[in-house]
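User: Structure please.
Assistant: Input sequence and predicted structure:
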Amino acid sequence: MSQENMIKLECTECKTVNYHSRKNKKVLKERLEMNKFCKNCNKHTLHKETK
């Protein structure tokens, strides 16, 4: 798996990195946002892509 395609997803409420994912950076130029479960907040929150 190429490291260039890896992204980190960070919780917008508690600011912890909970997930790693892949994305095609040639197709998707904007940052990814997903609703995921945060184990620290213990609820579903918005997770945004970090640098």
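The chain has one domain: 3-50.
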